[in-house]
């Protein structure tokens, strides 16, 4: 048997910590959007490598010590119950992606708990977290100052190209435009609220390290400690600046709660006058919160924001009431919400409350286990710091800073080469367009400087400040999660998992499992086997699917632009179909690639009719519905495939099912009414149109108050043989038919009558003489579109009720203009 080698064992543990730190910066940069299967797979593989290094350290040492706490047991129970809930749900496949993500978070927290046994390694991971928060805050301010104005110009000049480049369509395109036009910073995150949460979480580890530096600012290293403190103070200013630039009320509330928790934690860890000081600081935090909420103009925005979320939360509670024990299944909230929401509620894919979404998706049992995980963690932290570990410290020093700077450079370089998350958009200043690497250099410089300053300031890492800062950051996460979706954003979820592991390591363990070298070898062998299974069964298919879908999207954009690269059009079409087929084969249980393949086949069949293409589209759409029967988009594509195959009755059944899955959206009932009308079922068509008329004025978002664009309104009003024309001409025809203006009214009188009393009506009338086509029609439709649709639908219903036979044969509202 080989002799134990503590030096090599500690080097392996240090390497595992470096892998975890590199994963933090990589996921923080690229993981600001909602999670994807490929991202989860790569993150899980990185963490598995770190875990194998830790297990190998146990083999090289005298054995393996596995630290456990009650939170570990509660979280494992929560994860197991999530699997059970997923199996009980109508859509069993949707929960698999969620289960994989939660398992990866759990592995990150468990690995952190094992690695953070030594004080110096706790300091190392705390410095990684703090540096990541500061680096992303710096990029958010960079993005806010330079990128957002450029994207605004891009939207004004080339709106279609922005939509194609971002892959945004429909409601998502509107959300993107609204986010860019709003004067709020969001950086690499999906919304300003998520960026604010991440920045607020980064503030408190930085503040804890700064407090540790203040205690060490004396002696022989006073100059270096003061320099480190200056860097940390600047990093805190970056995080606070990003938080303020986001204008996120939820972020400010979470920050204030974190400040109060920080003060209370400092008081609990000390005594005497410091406890009084903690109470005063907590009171000051509450005062700051009250002042923040009461800022000029913020009260109305806060009320509006909470009002939108109340709709999500009410539906979440209804879901939980319907299935209180197991919930609707992990990742089943979005489809169930579309079935239950009121017309006044906003469209959403998440509950905007991680805790309520857990309740809705996993039931009361899941919520209890979820809450017990965090409660046990905070109770363990309150129990006091663990006894000092006698193991070598390992992860500190100048060599560690250099190694982590190199790893951060590798992580950012991989993102720049493969993803381009921080690449500048079009219409940036020339100096930035010629140097797209500058934002990566900015993030790397800030990360490296703050990380090195954190190691210098923390010293022996036994100071109280970093431990309190980590716990306060965890409170920020939990408070912000009450009002937003945070767990499903990998950058925030991974940071929270590491914070949870650090908080558990800073408390007293519940149990410690001691394994000898033989047990450590067995654990290493089992870990190697599980890592291989993950790589082959999860990571490889997920990456294959991601590459195939990306290639298919590139080919689609080339075909739409009329410039297929690398060959002629038919060759590009064949490659497009091959890429979709490759994506479906890679992850056959995912309904998304099957739906996209069916859509691509239908798109091709529209220009090149053929029986084989139609049959393949029908098969792909059927597979999508089979995998997720609750997704309305799957039924919509199935209806299109059946219609293309000549099955009108089957197409009608599918489109009705699609509308039933999103009953509050007028646009969902529009194709139903059209299908009834084409089938000669006038009464059913009139009922569907009347339902639309009842739903249209109740919609929360203006984009949902029109069931189609201006071209669709032309087709609806004048029939399939309508000649192309401007919306201005169409609006006059509809207004005359509805009696809003007389036949002799000129254009100015018609526009004034149409825009009377509508939002944006006065600016439209003011700017009308200076507008020209097509901007004139676009502006007019944006303001008066809902009113035009209302009049056109009312005319359609009158015609169906009065002359059902005539309107059952034509496709127009008035039989032609």
Shape: globular
Percent of residues in helices: over 70%
Number of domains: 2
Task: Briefly note the structural class of the backbone.
Answer: mainly alpha
Number of strands: 2
Number of helices: 33
Rounded mean pLDDT score: 83
Widest β-sheet, arrangement of strands: 1-2
Catalogue the unreliable spans.
Answer: 167-172, 390-395
The radius of gyration over CA amounts to 29 Å
Sheet with most strands: 2 strands, antiparallel
- N/C terminus separation: 93 Å
Strand content: under 5%
Question: Would you write up a description of this structure?
Answer:
This protein is an all-alpha fold and 817 residues long. Helices cover 74% and strands 1% of the residues. It has two domains: 6-379 and 397-515, no CATH class; 692-817, no CATH class. It contains 33 helices and two strands. Helix 12 crosses helix 13, helix 18 packs across helix 19 and helix 27 crosses helix 32 (775-802). The radius of gyration is 29 Å and the shape is globular.
